[in-house]
């Protein structure tokens, strides 16, 4: 029997997109999954939409207090029982072969962490940038300068590395978590196929690079324990790479 994949999803006011995300999971060719959705006390009808789907693999929990995406992801991680951990935000999308391709690659290549290409789309899931390419082996060292790992396109093996929680006091919680994971394992391997779509929403915090430079600096200073000079050096590298990553938007 194929190993169980635990899908980790935080959601908050996601009614506009959640059904497309749900359908992309239900369409997976790899069927042995559990989906741990943690709703962060949505004010719209997100929860009602999720409850429409009568599939025992979808396990919804609604928090009593809003605590942010990192806290919601941790809630899902704590409930997860699968060997493989996959992340899917409530407005993103997987191609049907995503889980099967990623798990097959991990087994065939004895990998502990893998990531794939993904399309960068607008709110209508239409491409607005060239696909982000998984073209390099990821290490702790090169992840310091730019975060190549996105939740929508990354999977790791808990049997090999255990579970890694997100820091709830950082607005760059995903980068901190990936760095902590890559302190333990030597590398993450690229799957050179486009298997997911990432929605670049206009109000997304991750799009407002100028507003989160301080938060990124704190990734290095507070969470990695680097000196001020070293933290400034890596923040400058991250900012430049972020500009190059998102500057070529086309109509």
TrEMBL record:
InterPro entries in the record: Glyco_trans_2-like (IPR001173), Nucleotide-diphossugar_trans (IPR029044)
Record has Transferase as a keyword: yes
Keywords of the record: Transferase
Gene3D superfamilies documented for this protein: Spore Coat Polysaccharide Biosynthesis Protein SpsA, Chain A
Coiled-coil residue windows: none
Gene Ontology molecular function: any one: hexosyltransferase activity
Domain Glycosyltransferase 2-like: 6-123
Entry keyword Transferase: yes
SUPFAM superfamilies attached to this UniProt entry: Nucleotide-diphospho-sugar transferases (SSF53448)
Lineage: superkingdom: Bacteria
Protein name: Glycosyl transferase family 2
Organism: Chryseobacterium angstadtii
């Amino acid at each position: 029997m194929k190993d169980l994949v635990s899908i980790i999803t935080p959601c908050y006011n996601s009614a506009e997109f959640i059904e497309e995300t749900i359908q992309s999971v239900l369409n997976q060719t790899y069927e042995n999954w559990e989906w741990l959705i943690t709703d962060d006390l949505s004010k719209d009808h997100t929860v009602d939409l999720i409850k429409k789907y009568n599939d025992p693999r979808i396990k919804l929990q609604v928090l009593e207090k809003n605590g942010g995406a990192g806290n919601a992801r941790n809630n899902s991680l704590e409930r997860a029982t699968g060997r493989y951990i996959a992340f899917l935000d409530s407005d993103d999308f997987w191609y049907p072969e995503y889980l099967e391709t990623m798990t097959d690659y991990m087994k065939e290549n004895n990998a502990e962490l893998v990531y794939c290409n993904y399309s960068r789309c607008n709110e209508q899931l239409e491409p607005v940038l060239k696909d982000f390419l998984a073209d390099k082996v990821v290490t702790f060292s090169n992840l310091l300068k730019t975060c190549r790992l996105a939740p929508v396109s990354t999977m790791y093996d808990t049997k090999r590395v255990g579970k890694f929680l997100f820091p709830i006091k950082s607005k760059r919680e995903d980068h901190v978590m990936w760095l902590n994971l890559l302190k333990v394992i030597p590398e993450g391997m690229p799957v050179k196929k486009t298997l997911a779509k990432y929605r670049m929403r206009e109000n997304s915090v991750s799009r407002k690079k100028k507003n989160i430079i301080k938060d990124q600096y704190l990734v290095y200073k507070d969470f990695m324990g680097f000196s001020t000079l070293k933290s400034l050096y890596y923040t400058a590298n991250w900012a430049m790479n972020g500009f190059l990553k998102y500057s070529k938007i086309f109509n």
